[in-house]
C-alpha cells in the first residue's frame, strides 16, 4: 500500500520533501511483497498474520494482531531458549538517523537473542541528508545487500512510511519525528496488560508534552482497539495532543478529555488507573517564563499522587530527567522499570512474527 | 613493497606528515608478510593469487587478478551458501575515520555473510588525529589484537599505503582522501562486465567533479587493463581529471579525451557506451556564480540522454543528490541500482581471496 | 558494598550529582548479588575468586587476585583455542560515554574471542546527560535486557562505582574520569611481569601529567600489592600525583618520591627499572608559557635515556602524540608495543574470571 506521507509539519521537524518523494513513487517499479520464509511460509491473508508486514503506524494494528504479539511475548518470557534460532540467517539493519541508546539497545539485543545478525547503522550525520533522495538510495542499497528487515529511526514525519514503500523487506518504525513510535506503544500496552490484567475499561491519563511526543499518539491509537477506554490528556494548551490524534479518536468513538488548567490536575489524577508521564521541555515554550510558571504542576511526585487511587500505575518511557521523582521508585505505583523490561520480549515477539523462521 | 606516499595535495585534504611517516619507516622492523591460512596455504607467487595481498591502489591489480575477483563474485552469486564459513574465525576491523554508510555497510555485510567477525570502528573523531603517529599506534594496536584484515577509510591521501606498510595483515583501502577507492572501481568494472558482457572496446565517459573524486582515478586505472578502451572526461577545466591520472593513462597508452566546454557535451554523450556520473559540489568552486552557470550542463536527465545510444548505461556510486534525475530510474539506462547491488558479491570475493580459508 | 562516590573534583571533570545519587541509593531495592554460572558455580567466598565481581578500582584487587588474572592470561596466550566458548551465550554491553578506539577495540575483541556477544554502545552524546538520573535509567534498562556484564567508560569520577551499585551484573570500569582505569593498570603490571620477570623490588617512574591521568593512580594502587616497590613521580608541581594517591601509598607503606624540578629528572631516570610515560597537555596549564618552558624536559627521547640503565623498560598507554620519540621504537627500551598487545590476553582473562562459564 502506498500512502503519501502526512503533511502536518511540527516546528523544528524537517518534513520529507514531498515533491521528490512523489517523483520517486512514480519512478519506482511496483513490487509485489511476497515473502518466502523458512521452506513453506508465504504471506497469508488471515487477519492476525504479521509475517512480512511493515510496522509503521500503531493505526495499522488490529486488536487481534496486538493480542498475537502479546501471546508470543508471553511465550518468549516463559520459553526464551526456544527462540534462540528464530532469526538464524536473517539480517536486521538498524538504521538510526537519530541516536537513541535505549531503543537501539532493545532492538539490537532482541535480534541477537533470536539468533539474527545485526547491521548497526548509527548515522546521526545523515540528519543533514534527510532529503528523500538520499534516504531512498540508502534504503535501496540495504535492500541490494539482502537485509531481511530494516528497523529505522528518523527525525522526519513520514520517513518510516516512505521506507516501507521503497523496500520490499519489512520496515519497523523505531520512531519517526514526533509522529509515531509504535513498538514503544506495543510495550506500553503490554505493560498495562501484565500489571492490570486487562486493557478494557481503563482510565488512562497522559501528562506532559503531548504535542511533540511520538509515543503518546501511538499509545492513543493502540488503546482505541480496546473497549470502554477513557483517555485524559493533561497538558497546557500549547502542548496538548495534536489534532490528528483527536480526529482519530473521534472517528473511533473513543472517550477523551483534555485537562489544560493546573487547578484541574488533581481531580483528573484521582480518576486514573494509569498515568503516563512525558517530560515538559523548556525549549518547546515560546515564552521561557511560561515554562517556569508551569513546570511544578507537571512534575510527578508523591505530593501529586496524594490524589491518586492506591492502584494507580505510573508509566514513563525512560530515561527521565526530573519530571518523575525518584521517591516513587520504591512504591507500587512505579511500573516504569517493569515497563522498560518488557521492551525486550515485545520486540522479540515482533521480530519473530514479522521476519522469523516458521516454527 | 614500501612506497613513499604521494605528495600531491588536494585543497582541503590533509596530507599525512611525510617526515614523521619517514621516521616511522626507519623505525619499523622489516617484516616478512607470510600468511598461513587454513592448514596448508602460504602466500604463493603465482600472479593471480591475491592471498594476503593489500588492496591499496587499483594500479596494483592486473587483468588476471581482476578476472579472478570477478570469477569468484560470479560464484558467490550462484552459490552463496557455499561461502558462509569462508571467513570463520577471521577478524576484520573496519576502521572508518571518515563516515560512509554505504561502504561501511557493504563491507560489514560482506564479512558477516562469509562467517567472519567484524570489529566496527566508526571513528570520525579520529579525524582530528590524522597525524601519522596516532594512526601508526592505532594500527599497531589492531595488529596486536590479532585482526586478520583491516579495511580502512581515511580522509588523507597515502593513508592506506601507510597502513599497508605498518601492519602485516592485509589492508583493504575503502577510500583514501580523493586519491583512490579501488573496491568501488572493482564493483564498477564488474557492473560493466555483467551489463555489457565485456569491458574491452568500451567507450566510457566520466562526468562531473573528476578532480576531487576518489572513484574516477581508481576506475580509470582498472579499465586501463582492458583492450581498446576509450575514456572521455567530461568536466569544467577546474574540475578535470588530475594530472597523475593522465600520466598513468599516457604511460599505458590508453586513449582519452577531455571535454571541458558545455557545448561539446552532447556530442561526447552520443559516443558513449557507459556514462559514469559524479556530483558537482558548489563548495569546490572558487566562484559560486561559476557553479550556478555550469550546474545545469552537468545534471543528467532524460533531456541530456536524447543524444545517447539506446544501449547507454548510466552509472553512479550513489547516493545521489540532484545530479541524476529520478526519471532515469525507470529506463534501461539505469544501471546504478544493479551497480549498488554488486558491491556485496565483489567485496565478498575480495575478502574470500585475500583472507579466506582455503577451500 | 555501597560506597559513596569520592567528592574530589578535578577541573573540567563533571562530578556525579551526589544528592541525587544518594536519593537513588535510598530508592533502590537491596539486591543480593548471586550468580549462577554454568550449572554449578555460585559466587564463592574464597579470596581469589573473581566470579561475579565488579572491577571498579585497582584498590579492590589483592595480590592473589591479580596473580590469578595473570595466570589465566598466560593460559590464554598458550591455549587460546580453549577459550573460544568461555562467554558463549553471555552478553557484554560496552557503554562508552567517552570515545576510545583502543580500549573499546580491546574489550570488543576480547569478548568476541571468548565467544560472547557484544552490545556496542558508543554514546558520546550521552555526555550531555551525565546526570546520575539518566545514567541510572540507562543502566537499569541494560539490566532489564539481561546483559551479563557492563563495561563502562565515563567522563565522571564515581560513575563506575555508581554503576556497580545500581546493577546486579558485574561492572568493569574502562576508565572513570581521571579517577581510575584498573584494567589498563592490570595489563601494565602484566607487562612488567612478562618483561622483567617479577614486580617485587621494582623502581618504577611515572612521568608527565600525573594529576589528570586515570592510569597512574590505578597503576600505583596495583603495584602497592608487591614487595619493596619504589615509585618516582616525575612531574611539575602543578601536575604532580593527586593527594588521594599519596594517602593510599602512605597508608600501605609504599616508598615514593616526587621529582618536580627539571634538573632532578636525569638523576631520577638513572634509578629506574621502568619508566611509565604520559603526555603533558598544553590545556592543563593555566599559563601557556609555562607549558612551553617545560615540555622539552618531559619529552622522552634517546637523549633523555642517556642517563638510564641499559635494562630500562619504557611504557606508554598509546597512542602517543609527541611525548615519546619514535627513535626509541627500535631499541630494547621500547616495551610499549608489547604492552599494547597484552591488553587482549589480560582482558580475556578478566572476562573469563568475572563472567565466564565454569570450565
Spell out the key features of this protein.
homotrimer, 359 residues, alpha/beta, Rossmann fold, 2 domains, five-stranded parallel sheet, four-stranded parallel sheet, 13 helices
Proportion of residues in helical segments of chain A = 25-40%
| Major β-sheet strand ordering of chain A | 7-6-5-8-9
Secondary-structure element pattern of chain A, one letter each: HHEHEHEHEHEHEHEHEHHEHH
Total helical segments of chain A: 13
By CATH reckoning, the class of the largest domain in chain A would read: Alpha Beta
Number of strands of chain A: 9
Q: What is the CATH superfamily classification of the largest domain in chain A?
A: Aspartate/ornithine carbamoyltransferase
CATH topology name of the largest domain in chain A, in short, is Rossmann fold
Shape assignment of chain A: globular
Gyration radius of chain A, rounded: 20 Å
Mean pLDDT of chain A: 84
Main sheet overview of chain A? 5 strands, parallel
Q: Span between N and C termini of chain A?
A: 28 Å
Count structural domains of chain A: 2
- How much strand of chain A? 5-15%
Amino acid at each position: 500500500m502506498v500512502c503519501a506521507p502526512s503533511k502536518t509539519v511540527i516546528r523544528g521537524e524537517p518534513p520529507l520533501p514531498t515533491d521528490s518523494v512523489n517523483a520517486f513513487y512514480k519512478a519506482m517499479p511496483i513490487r509485489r511483497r511476497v515473502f518466502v520464509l523458512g521452506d513453506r511460509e508465504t504471506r497469508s491473508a488471515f487477519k492476525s498474520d504479521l509475517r512480512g508486514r511493515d510496522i509503521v503506524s500503531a493505526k495499522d494494528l488490529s486488536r487481534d494482531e496486538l493480542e498475537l504479539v502479546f501471546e508470543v511475548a508471553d511465550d518468549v518470557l516463559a520459553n526464551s531458549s526456544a527462540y534462540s534460532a528464530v532469526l538464524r540467517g536473517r539480517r536486521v539493519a538498524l538504521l538510526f538517523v537519530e541516536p537513541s541508546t535505549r531503543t537501539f539497545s532493545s532492538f539490537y539485543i532482541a535480534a541477537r537473542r533470536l539468533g539474527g545478525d545485526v547491521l548497526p547503522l548509527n548515522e546521526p550525520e545523515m540528519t543533514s541528508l534527510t532529503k528523500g533522495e538520499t534516504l531512498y538510495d540508502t534504503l535501496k542499497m540495504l535492500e541490494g545487500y539482502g537485509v531481511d528487515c530494516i528497523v529505522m529511526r528518523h527525525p522526519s514525519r513520514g520517513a518510516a512510511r516512505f521506507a516501507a514503500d521503497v523496500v520490499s523487506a519489512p520496515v519497523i518504525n523505531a520512531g519517526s519525528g514526533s509522529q509515531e513510535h509504535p513498538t514503544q506503544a506495543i510495550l506500553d500496552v503490554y505493560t498495562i496488560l501484565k500489571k492490570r490484567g486487562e486493557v478494557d475499561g481503563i482510565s488512562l491519563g497522559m501528562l506532559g508534552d503531548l504535542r511533540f511526543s511520538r509515543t503518546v499518539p501511538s499509545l492513543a491509537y493502540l488503546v482505541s482497539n480496546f473497549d470502554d477506554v477513557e483517555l485524559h490528556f493533561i497538558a497546557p494548551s500549547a502542548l496538548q495532543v495534536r489534532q490528528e490524534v483527536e480526529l482519530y479518536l473521534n472517528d473511533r468513538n473513543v472517550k477523551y478529555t483534555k485537562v489544560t488548567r493546573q487547578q484541574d490536575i488533581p481531580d483528573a489524577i484521582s480518576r486514573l488507573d494509569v498515568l503516563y508521564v512525558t517530560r515538559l521541555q523548556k525549549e518547546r515554550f515560546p515564552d521561557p517564563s511560561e515554562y517556569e510558571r508551569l513546570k511544578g504542576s507537571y512534575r510527578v511526585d508523591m505530593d501529586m499522587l496524594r490524589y491518586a487511587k492506591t492502584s494507580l500505575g505510573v508509566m514513563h518511557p525512560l530515561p527521565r530527567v526530573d519530571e518523575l521523582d525518584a521517591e516513587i521508585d520504591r512504591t507500587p505505583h512505579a511500573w516504569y522499570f517493569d515497563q522498560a523490561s518488557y521492551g525486550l520480549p515485545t520486540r522479540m515477539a515482533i521480530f519473530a512474527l514479522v521476519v522469523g523462521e516458521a516454527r
